[in-house]
Amino acid sequence: MKYLHTAVRVTDLVQALDFYCGQMGMIEVRRFKGHQRPCDIIFLAMPGDDQAQIEVVYYHDAADREKYGNFSHVAYQVENIYDTCQELMDKGLSLNLPPRDGFMAFVKSPDGISFELLQKGGPLPPEEPWASMPDQGTW
Amino acid sequence: MKYLHTAVRVTDLVQALDFYCGQMGMIEVRRFKGHQRPCDIIFLAMPGDDQAQIEVVYYHDAADREKYGNFSHVAYQVENIYDTCQELMDKGLSLNLPPRDGFMAFVKSPDGISFELLQKGGPLPPEEPWASMPDQGTW
């Protein structure tokens, strides 16, 4: 596994980007919209250190912004998300989000820190038993 | 600045290391004791990705373990901690922990995410005005 990013939730996107970019000196790497809970997702990195990123999530709905804490998760890239998830299950770990889409899974530490696993190079074709595996709690 | 680690607090060290090392496959990079609030501090990394680490903090005092949340901070290495702190102050940021020891400083995002700044290569000689600069809040 390879470290990708640490994700944080922000309550004021302008103020947050003023801190991360204006003050801390990070640069915007990419930005897109989230749809499940409508949001802006912005990846930031320090100049010259673009492999280790901060993911900033800004929910459009005030209720979503109030619902969650400021820390979201830590993300790692994996070579084969199905193999990794199988290994983790074999070691007794639950998949809070199974890799139904062949791309993304979530597990949690005993203290509730969420770890996101992301397939290197983009989604694999959906595959059973993963495609129909239900969530286990939140992530 | 260069990303170093994301720090988490754990309530059961054996259980935590079983997750991070036994299940997730991380390896212990270094370990030492903290003294201000007695604790074990363990740095972990994925094999082959030892530059991006997870810092695990286990407080010995149950009251300390109950006092704080599971997420602690994100850390970056800086070329010159005094220059960086001066730049951040010039941009209007408060230093929650000034670099009194020439090595470590903390700032916070508007949403309360703590960022640790660490001097590359170890402590610089203590220097004013930093050496006598008081804390500003918590970090």
List the helices and strands and how they pair.
The structure is a homodimer of 139-residue chains.
Chain A: E1 2-9, H1 13-23, E2 27-34, E3 39-46, E4 49-59, H2 62-67, E5 71-78, H3 81-90, E6 104-108, E7 114-119
Parallel strand pairs in A: 1-4, 5-7
Antiparallel strand pairs in A: 1-5, 2-3, 3-4, 6-7
Assigned CATH class of the largest domain in chain A: Alpha Beta
Structural class call of chain A reads: alpha/beta
Major β-sheet annotation of chain A: 7 strands, mixed
Assembly state here? homodimer
Biggest β-sheet: strands ordered side by side in the sheet of chain A: 2-3-4-1-5-7-6
| Largest interface chains and counts | A-B, 39 and 39 residues
CATH superfamily heading of the largest domain in chain A: 2,3-Dihydroxybiphenyl 1,2-Dioxygenase, domain 1
Indicate the overall shape of chain A. Answer: globular
Q: Number of helix segments of chain A?
A: 3
CATH domain fold name of the largest domain in chain A: 2,3-Dihydroxybiphenyl 1,2-Dioxygenase, domain 1
Identify the CATH architecture of the largest domain in chain A: Roll
Secondary-structure element pattern of chain A, one letter each: EHEEEHEHEE
Overall structural domain count of chain A: 2
Terminal CA distance of chain A reads 19 Å
Q: Percent of residues of chain A in beta strands?
A: 35-45%
The unreliable regions of chain A are none
> What Rg of chain A, in angstroms, do the CA atoms define?
16 Å
Mean pLDDT over all positions of chain A = 97
Q: Can you give the helix content of chain A as a percent range?
A: 10-25%
Number of strands of chain A: 7
